[in-house]
């Protein structure tokens, strides 16, 4: 049977694009995070939706697990094939399908790397952008929306999945579905409304309901000048208020906060980072004044103040994507950075940030809490992460334990998971409304009758 | 440091992320064939989680050592990537576990002093009729290298360069049949012991003959002479011929006539990314009246490799197909509408010319060496 499956995969994608070799099974059986490895039986790198469709038909017939993969950079083990099967690496599917300038959207294949999309827009549609994540540039658009995704426009507009304007999806049964306005029109301007919004069956499902082969993404005006300010306080209890006021200015493009143990000069401090833009120096300065004014009394009371930034630091902060974020993985000279990133109410910053730093310090871990405000203050992602050395097994175990406790603490305080590991998914489902769980189960059963799609993930008992 | 790779993938791209620029990743499509894949698999091999296999070899040896990964990796250890890959291949070699094509390459070099397995006396045949003399204390040694000595295109290049050097009034000689391989690609393939033998023999010969200044035809030789030979006691003043031509033209040694041609220049990896020489070849071309120099969208530090580096010209482990590096690069060149694809490396010349023939593009574009283009500008006066 194994030979037959291999032969069938070769017939679909060609011999050069399927592997059952140990080298691919090893590499695709793990990611750069902390989840345990589990190898697939095959890895395929299809080029077209038709090839994906044939792979799905084969897998459904033979009841073989399918694990869709983009950049593989979730760090949460979401592309580790927990039950073996076929990893479908979509990164050869990276064509631009359509750029509609008047309609302010672009349609790309699911495997389009975020960095390539940025470069394409800079060349073909200057002055417009998509929401660029801070993850490495190889992260794919399909992968991002499969876990909802965040980017530098998340504060203004929402998750990357909120910016989707249409989908093409291949179901486990091999059916190819267009979702949104493109289901009945040549135009990809709406992912759902005013039709029944079927996109919710795929966005955020971690590849457990189908493979996203095409994505329509909304594009947004990019102002000519981008700048930022950093506000520093040593009072964690003030951070929600600071963020609230900055949201209220309605001039901030991206809003983040950071608390980290090192460098030592930042220990105990909370840095609120706000980006703003303008088409002229006047516009930028006007926004800067609004931002400064919004925090006047906190400055006057000396509970906080704006920080000067050295020129080389400025360049790193303004870099898009922020390579410095990825480079942090080498802080311990060991190839590792891992975080848990629950979404929590804004007011919970002090308790969660405090808890995480206590946990990390008690366990001798170099930590960083990084917050991103989502959708104009209706929630925030609290990324609690630490840097590790991959060869230090004991450090990895400490880190896993701390992240587990921090995540549990965030759930206790009303949080919900973002790109959760399989363990975090289980913890979330234990808290979930039984009606919602039943609905998830029903959806899975109907969309994926043979239970082949990324099994182990979002798996309702 | 091998465990420090985060497999983030910046190494696959150009610096603006516009294109996938790792030739083996583009060709094979699996992450294992990019630098991150190699780093993780070499670590796995060291930990005995993967064993030697044909696939492991394909992954290791399909690296064309173009240096795109080192140029675009964002980690502090970026400059060591190719060293890691070379060391992994050296490990294989130390156990005698190398692919047959690599074994044949090493054997030919060990036995014949060149990768073609050709007799040593044929090495100097290109000299006949070129006018250049055998080195006997001239100011410069013109070092040609394996491809310049044995491949027809390389020999034509060598003759063109030699003629220009003489016309420029330089005191220059060559080793002819006494020359032997510079060893750069041997080293890239992990043949460190053989490389050391070749290098030390070259250094000894250069010293015996009193060589102090070297002009290389081949950027691969240029790189190893400047990067590796000093550590083995071989300190020479080394220049690539395009640098010399640039000087000669600036000093008005050549009266150049109008050439109404559109040219695009392909940066050889070992001249560009490895050695940082981007401008001299362009300045030479720009000096020719009427010549329109147009850039491919991937150029300089973002140039896409022809696929001939890392010994692949001889071993061909990266193989053929529509996504073979030379064909991809040819498509880049065709997009510019250029009449001529200019090169400054005999390996690139061979790889790209073969691609032109394979694609039947002879009527649209021709591959010419920078020296040949200069020679034409002089000859038509």
Topology:
The complex is a heterodimer of chains A (461) and B (381).
Chain A (H helix, E strand, L loop, with lengths): L1 H12 L4 E2 L2 H7 L13 E3 L4 H14 L3 E4 L16 E4 L6 E5 L4 E5 L4 H11 L3 E2 L11 H6 L17 E7 L5 E4 L31 E8 L1 E2 L3 E9 L5 H11 L4 E7 L9 E9 L2 H14 L1 H5 L3 E3 L4 H8 L4 H5 L7 E6 L2 E2 L4 H14 L4 E8 L4 E11 L3 H20 L9 H10 L2 H14 L14
Parallel strand pairs in A: 2-4, 3-4
Antiparallel strand pairs in A: 1-2, 5-6, 6-10, 7-11, 8-9, 8-10, 12-14, 12-15, 13-14, 13-18, 16-19, 17-19, 18-19
Helix pairs in contact in A: 1-3, 11-12
Chain B lengths: L22 H6 L6 H12 L7 H8 L6 H5 L8 H14 L5 H13 L20 E2 L5 E4 L2 H5 L1 H16 L4 E3 L9 H5 L3 H17 L4 E4 L2 H9 L9 E4 H10 L11 E4 L13 H8 L5 E3 L17 H4 L9 H11 L4 E4 L2 H14 L6 E4 H10 L2
Parallel strand pairs in B: 1-3, 2-3, 2-4, 4-5, 6-7, 6-8, 8-9
Helix pairs in contact in B: 2-5, 8-17, 12-13, 15-16
Describe the structure.
The complex is a heterodimer of chains A (461) and B (381). Chain A has 461 residues and is of the alpha+beta class. Chain A folds into three domains: 88 residues, Uridine Diphospho-n-acetylenolpyruvylglucosamine Reductase, domain 2, CATH 3.30.43; 126 residues, Uridine Diphospho-n-acetylenolpyruvylglucosamine Reductase, domain 3, CATH 3.30.465; 188 residues, Vanillyl-alcohol Oxidase, Chain A, domain 3 (3-Layer(aba) Sandwich). Helices cover 33% and strands 22% of the residues of chain A. In chain A, the strands form four sheets. In chain A, strands 12, 13, 14, 15, 16, 17, 18 and 19 form an eight-stranded antiparallel β-sheet that branches. Chain A starts with a helix and ends in a 14-residue tail after the last helix. With 381 residues, chain B is an alpha/beta fold. Chain B folds into three domains: 89 residues, no CATH class; 131 residues, 3-Layer(aba) Sandwich (Rossmann fold); 125 residues, AF0625-like (Rossmann fold, 3-Layer(aba) Sandwich), CATH 3.40.50. Chain B is 44% helix and 8% strand. Chain B is built from 17 helices and nine strands. The termini of chain B are far apart. In chain B, 59% of the residues are buried. Classes of the chains: A alpha+beta (461), B alpha/beta (381).
């Amino acid at each position: 049977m194994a030979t037959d499956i291999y032969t069938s995969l070769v017939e679909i994608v060609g011999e050069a694009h399927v592997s059952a070799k140990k080298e691919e099974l090893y590499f695709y059986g793990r990611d750069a995070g902390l989840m345990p490895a589990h190898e697939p039986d095959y890895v395929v790198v299809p080029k077209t939706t038709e090839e994906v469709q044939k792979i799905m038909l084969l897998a459904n017939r033979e009841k073989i697990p399918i694990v869709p993969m983009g950049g593989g950079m979730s760090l949460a083990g979401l592309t580790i094939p927990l039950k073996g099967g076929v990893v479908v690496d979509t990164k050869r599917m990276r064509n631009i399908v359509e750029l509609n300038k008047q309609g302010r959207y672009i349609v790309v294949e699911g495997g389009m790397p975020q960095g390539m999309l940025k470069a394409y827009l800079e060349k073909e549609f200057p002055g417009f952008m998509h929401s660029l994540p801070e993850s490495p540039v190889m992260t794919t658009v399909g992968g991002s929306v499969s876990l909802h995704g965040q980017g530098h426009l998340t504060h203004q507009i929402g998750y990357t999945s909120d910016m989707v304007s249409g989908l093409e999806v291949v179901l486990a049964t091999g059916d190819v579905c267009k979702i949104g306005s493109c289901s009945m029109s040549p135009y990809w301007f709406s992912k759902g409304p005013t039709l029944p919004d079927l996109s919710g069956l795929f966005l955020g499902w971690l590849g457990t309901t189908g493979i996203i082969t095409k994505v329509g993404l909304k594009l947004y005006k990019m102002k000519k000048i981008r700048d930022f300010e950093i506000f520093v306080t040593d009072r964690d209890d003030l951070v929600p208020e600071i963020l609230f006021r900055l949201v209220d200015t309605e001039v901030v493009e991206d809003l983040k906060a950071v608390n980290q143990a090192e460098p030592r000069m930042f220990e105990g401090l909370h840095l609120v980072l706000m980006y703003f833009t303008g088409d002229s120096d006047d516009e930028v300065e006007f926004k800067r004044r609004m931002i400064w004014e919004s925090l006047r009394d906190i400055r006057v009371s000396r509970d906080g103040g704006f920080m000067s930034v050295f020129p080389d630091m400025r360049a790193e902060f303004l870099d898009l994507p922020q390579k410095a974020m990825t480079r942090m993985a080498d802080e311990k000279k060991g190839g590792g950075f891992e975080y848990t990133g629950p979404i929590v109410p804004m007011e919970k910053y002090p308790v969660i940030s405090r808890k995480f730093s206590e946990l990390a310090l008690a366990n001798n871990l170099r930590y960083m809490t990084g917050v991103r405000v989502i959708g104009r203050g209706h929630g925030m992602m609290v990324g609690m992460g630490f840097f590790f050395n991959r060869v230090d097994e004991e450090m990895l175990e400490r880190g896993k334990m701390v992240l587990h406790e921090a995540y549990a603490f965030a759930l206790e305080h009303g949080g919900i998971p973002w790109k959760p590991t399989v363990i975090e998914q289980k913890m979330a489902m234990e808290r979930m409304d039984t009606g919602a769980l039943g609905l998830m189960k029903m959806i899975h059963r109907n969309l994926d009758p043979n239970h082949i799609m990324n099994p182990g993930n979002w798996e309702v008992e | 440091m091998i465990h420090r790779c985060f497999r983030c993938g910046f190494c696959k791209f150009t610096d603006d992320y516009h294109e996938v620029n790792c030739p083996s990743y583009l060709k094979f499509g699996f992450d294992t064939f990019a630098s991150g894949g190699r780093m993780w698999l070499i670590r796995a091999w060291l930990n005995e989680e993967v064993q030697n296999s044909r696939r492991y070899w394909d992954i290791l040896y399909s690296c064309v050592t173009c240096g795109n990964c080192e140029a675009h990796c964002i980690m502090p250890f970026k400059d060591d990537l190719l060293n890691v890959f070379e060391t992994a291949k050296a490990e294989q070699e130390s156990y005698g576990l190398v692919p047959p094509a690599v074994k044949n390459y090493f054997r030919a070099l060990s036995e014949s002093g060149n990768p073609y397995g050709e007799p040593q006396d044929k090495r100097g045949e290109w000299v006949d009729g070129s006018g250049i003399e055998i080195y006997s204390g001239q100011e410069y040694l013109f070092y040609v290298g394996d491809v310049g000595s044995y491949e027809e295109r390389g020999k034509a290049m060598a003759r063109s360069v030699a003629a220009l050097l003489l016309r420029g009034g330089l005191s220059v000689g060559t080793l002819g049949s006494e020359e032997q391989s510079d060893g750069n690609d041997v080293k890239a393939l992990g043949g460190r012991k053989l490389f050391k033998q070749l290098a030390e023999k070259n250094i000894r010969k250069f010293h015996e003959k009193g060589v102090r200044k070297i002009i290389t035809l081949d950027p691969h030789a240029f790189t190893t002479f400047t990067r590796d030979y000093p550590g083995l006691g071989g300190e020479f003043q080394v220049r690539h011929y395009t640098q010399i031509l640039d000087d000669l033209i600036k000093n008005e040694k050549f009266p150049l006539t109008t050439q109404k041609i559109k040219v695009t220049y392909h940066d050889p990896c070992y001249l560009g990314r490895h050695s940082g020489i981007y401008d001299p070849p362009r300045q030479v071309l720009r000096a020719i009246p009427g010549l329109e120099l147009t850039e491919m969208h991937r150029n300089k530090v973002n140039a896409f490799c022809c696929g001939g580096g890392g010994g692949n010209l001889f071993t061909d482990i990266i193989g053929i197909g529509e996504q073979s590096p030379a064909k991809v690069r040819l498509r880049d060149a065709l997009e510019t509408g250029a009449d001529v694809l200019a090169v400054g490396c005999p390996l690139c010349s061979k790889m790209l010319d073969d691609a032109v023939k394979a694609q039947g593009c002879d009527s649209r574009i021709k591959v010419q060496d920078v020296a040949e283009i200069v020679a034409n500008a002089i000859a038509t006066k």
